Amino acid sequence: MKNMSLSRAMTFAVVSTLAMLSLAAPSSAQQGAAPAGTSPVAQQAPAVSQPPAALPQAAATAAPLDAAATPAEREGKLLKAAVAELRELSPWSMFKSADVLVKAVMIGLAFASLVTWTIFIAKMIELTVIQRKLRAALAKIADARSLAEAQFALGSKGSVLASLLAAAMREARLSAGITSDAGIKERAASSFTEIVRAEARRIRLGMGLLATIGATSPFVGLFGTVWGIMNSFIGISKAQTTNLAVVAPGIAEALLATAIGLVAAIPAVIIYNHFTRVTKGYMELVSRASGAAGRLLSRDLDRTHVSGGQHSRATAAE
Q1: What is the spatial distance between Cα 57 and Cα 247, in angstroms, rounded to a whole number?
Q2: Residue pLDDT, tens place only, 7-47
């Protein structure tokens, strides 16, 4: 009995030991396999950020970037370079980088502006001189009693008044022997009208060019602007970006053409209006000169008739 109890105890101990070993074996296997495996997080490769799809046009000329820099750092440096180029924009740099057609528009408008100021200087000097001369001539003949006396007072100085007096003298000489004073005065007035019209055409030389520049320059500048903006949109489509660094330079060049057009047009319109008033005042002086020549001719005709009547009476008395 004692032996049987001892065998039962030994059997129970062996069974318990085997059970414990069977339970501990899986956990040990798992602990040994864990270092050799990789975790799900470790098996994932680090995400590689993609570079920007399109970079600003200004960054194309920037200095090479550090290859070790992160994408965010590279994009920041590119934007800084674009901003720096935008700050360096000037009228001259925009002109140099503009399209050929836009350059041609700008050069044409600059030449038109130069023509405008040349006409302004030339016409201002011309109108000042001829107005002074005509006023002085009218003052000289104010007390003249005949055409011959007026011509002697003026001398050989060329002016529109001298031309009017010469036309009156020529008509009086060609009409010698004609007793119709009305016909002589009518023919003299016709000659005066032709001289006044010729003087008006001469004094208005260049005014038509000013009017053309003032009327067309804004539209020529607008044409350059439209062409430049069209090229800017083409550049946007090629770069596949709407970044301001790509759009701004082309639009700035286009707007420069409009600005030059206004610079050419505004002075031309102002100068044209000024010369219109000045020429109107000068033509009033010319009309006064024409009237003065007509009055002197009328006096000469009356003296001719008076002297002719006195001669006839003297002959009859003899």
Answers
A1: 9
A2: 565 555 555 555 554 544 444 444 444 444 444 333 443 43
Q: What is the pLDDT of residues 140-155, one digit of tens each?
A: 888 888 898 888 888 7
- Residue 101, pLDDT score: 87
Tell me which long-range contacts 157-163 makes (C-beta under 8 A, separation of at least 24): 157/133, 159/130, 159/133, 159/134, 160/130, 160/134, 160/195, 160/196, 160/199, 160/286, 160/289, 161/134, 161/137, 161/289, 161/292, 161/293, 162/137, 163/195
Length of the chain: 318
Helices (H), the chain: 2-36, 40-43, 71-87, 91-97, 100-140, 147-154, 160-174, 181-203, 207-239, 244-317
CA distance 199 to 194: 9
Question: Can you give the residue ranges of every domain in the chain?
Answer: 99-130+146-304
- The pTM assigned to this predicted structure is 0.65
Torsion of CA 88, 91, 96, 101, to 10 degrees: 140
- Cα–Cα distance measured from residue 294 to residue 274, given in angstroms and rounded to the nearest whole number: 31
Residue 289 and residue 293: Cα distance in Å, rounded? 6
User: Terminal CA-to-CA distance of the chain, rounded, Å?
Assistant: 213
Tokens of 6: 């001892």
Q: How far apart are alpha carbons 168 and 174 in whole angstroms?
A: 10
Q: Using an 8 Å Cβ cutoff, are 136 and 160 in contact? A: no
pLDDT of residue 17: 52
